Amino acid sequence: MKKKETIYQYEVIFDPNGAGYTVTVPKLPGLVTEGDSLRHAREMAKDAIRCYIEGLLKERSLSARKSGIQREKVRVTV
Known about the structure:
Radius of gyration: 17 Å
Structural class: alpha+beta
Order of helices and strands: EEEH
Oligomer: single chain
Number of helices: 1
Largest sheet: 3 strands, antiparallel
Strand order of the largest sheet: 1-2-3
Helix content: 25-40%
């Protein structure tokens, strides 16, 4: 069974640095990357955001397993 994908959208700041662009994402503290062109900086931003989110999801999953907490979505019809 294929895992459902989620689309995330974030505002990204591309700051010219003389050798390309430094990239930050205000909603993701500590995420900084760069690229030697705007196109490259966009690719790097997408990759960095993907890695950041995967890390958060993995951390959440590990902490839930350790605590015994289980999360599920249930449907209720009224």
